Amino acid sequence: MNDSGETTASPIPPESSSIPLIDLHRHLEGAIRPQTVLELAEQYNMPLPRELEALRPLVQVTSPEPDLVAFLAKIDCAALPLMTLDACARITRENVEDAAREGISYLELRFSPCFIAQSHDLDPAGVVEAIVDAARLAERDYGVRTNLIGILCRTYGPESAMRELDALLTQREHLTALDLAGDEAHFPGELFIEHFRRGRDAGWHITVHAGEAAGAPGVWQAITELGAERIGHGVRAIDDPSLVEVLARQGIGLEISLTSNVQTSTVPDYASHPLRQFLEHGVLATINTDDPAISGIDLPYELRVAAPAAGLSPAQIRQAQRNAIEIAFLDEDERAALRQRLAD
Ligand code: ADE
Ligand code: ZN
Fold it and tell me: Who's near 211: CB < 8 A, 6+ residues apart?
């Protein structure tokens, strides 16, 4: 993507790097290869274009969308051919393979079972099991340490989210954390307090999309009422200096995704992004991909192109990667091992 918000069609190939690359915020449904969408559409005879170049504008953002909901519509389209549990397993495996190709050492991959299940009435618990099983095999085969995060999709309302939570809980010990995603502007976190109480009781870590399509109060709510240890995006927190101070003081990390934030019109361009300010205030802000296939980017692109365009110095980019180690949902032994690799 260039500074006016246009994406390049193919990602920049990764170069070898001594830094252990970490992506803490990547959506499975937003990281389906366009080629796979094409093949599944053909396999299941879906009403989608049969040519990659005709399909691409439906599943990839090429210039900023007016808002988050318009951006999310591309994911709806990419997920349309997920007609079977085999298709869910395939995209999971390919996600981990793609992370390996990018040079990622540790990946937190998140997904909403109801979002995936909804178009073709799949069983949400079956979707969770298929993804968990495929991720474990792919982790072994591609050597990318992978933790899974279950998402409650706020766009379908609190009752659907409760069913979604029940489906996620069937694989409780195979998921690391619980998240809330979807249409933040119309479905505030106040609707999901009981869901997150149950998620915390299940022993999961908590991260919440907030401060992306709505303001700083949603970030406060995520922390104080949902128990968020990390915030997905959190861009609008910059409007409230007392919130920035709390984020820094309490070590509540931000999962920033620069290109996504431009493409959802959360910020007007890379240069206006507050990531640099968060880092300068000591917030544990990180750099992630969000929906790399939809955005037409990968993690090396975000680190080498987007981050400098957002005004980060090489030292600040390194700091963001160091922050990712500190806020990763890992046990202390694995965190120490990543720290050691950074020091080597
Ligand atoms: N689902 C996928 N990407 C998302 C984003 N950036 N915000 C909210 N929900 C999402
Ligand atoms: Zn996200």
Answer: 218, 219, 231, 233, 234, 235, 236, 237
Question: Closest ligand 1 atom, CA of 257?
Answer: 6
Task: Point out the catalytic residue in the list 29, 212, 255, 302.
Answer: 212
Assess whether 212 carries a catalytic annotation.
yes
How much is the pTM? 0.95
Per-residue pLDDT tens digits for 282-297: 999 999 999 999 999 9
CATH number reported for the structural domain that contains residue 244 in this entry: 3.20.20.140
234 CB within 6 A, ligand 1: no
Residue 318 located in a structural domain: yes
Pairwise CA distance, residues 273 & 266, whole Å? 9
* H or E element in which residue 332 lies: helix 332-343
For residue 137, tell me if it sits in a domain: yes
Instruction: Take residue 4 and report the two structure tokens written for it.
Output: 């006016």
Domain that holds residue 268: 21-343
Query: Is 256 within a domain?
Result: yes
Q: Which ligand is nearest to the CA of 264?
A: 1
Q: Is the CB of 290 under 6 A from ligand 1?
A: yes
Q: How many A from CA of 249 to the centre of ligand 1? A: 27
- The count of structural domains within the chain is 1
